[in-house]
């Protein structure tokens, strides 16, 4: 129930209320999950609060609930904002934590590198797809 309320708050731009609900979850001693954390991360990112989103992201990593969707949320946002140093840090965390990147993960980092003019890095990432058993799609 909490997760659904948070998701609705974030989608309607009421991130403050979503944070309030998130704090209620913690105070009630309810273990959070990837859906709740990803909703809050996306809510923070929707209002350009990267530091707050990264705090939730780090909590998700530390608690072991971070999944590829959480990583992709951060990677997508920082790549679109041209913050490829941030995208690289998140990418390194994916690798370090043994999370398998998806084609979406690759697409966002490839696009970010292309926009940043780093075609060598984009091509390097593109060339990794076959060894990761991923197939390029129309976005790639």
From TrEMBL:
Species annotation: Anisodus tanguticus
Keywords assigned: Repeat
Alphabetized NCBIfam families for the sequence: PPR (TIGR00756)
Protein name (Swiss-Prot/TrEMBL): PROP1-like PPR domain-containing protein
Family designation: Belongs to the PPR family. P subfamily.
UniProt repeat feature PPR, residue ranges: 1-32, 67-101, 102-136
InterPro entries for the chain: PPR_P_subfamily, PPR_rpt, PROP1-like_PPR_dom, TPR-like_helical_dom_sf
Residue ranges constituting the PROP1-like PPR domain according to the UniProt record: 5-129
Superkingdom of origin organism: Eukaryota
């Amino acid at each position: 129930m909490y997760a659904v309320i948070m998701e609705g708050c974030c989608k309607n731009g009421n991130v403050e209320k979503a944070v309030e609900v998130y704090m209620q979850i913690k105070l009630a001693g309810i273990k959070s999950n990837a859906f709740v954390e990803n909703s809050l991360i996306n809510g923070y990112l929707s209002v350009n609060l990267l530091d707050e989103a990264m705090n939730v992201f780090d909590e998700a990593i530390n608690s072991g609930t971070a999944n590829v969707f959480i990583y992709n949320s951060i990677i997508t946002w920082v790549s679109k904002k041209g913050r490829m140093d941030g995208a690289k840090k998140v990418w390194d965390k994916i690798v370090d934590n043994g999370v398998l990147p998806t084609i979406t993960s690759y697409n966002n980092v490839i696009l970010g590198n292309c926009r940043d003019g780093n075609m060598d890095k984009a091509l390097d990432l593109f060339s990794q797809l076959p060894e990761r058993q991923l197939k390029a799609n129309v976005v790639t």
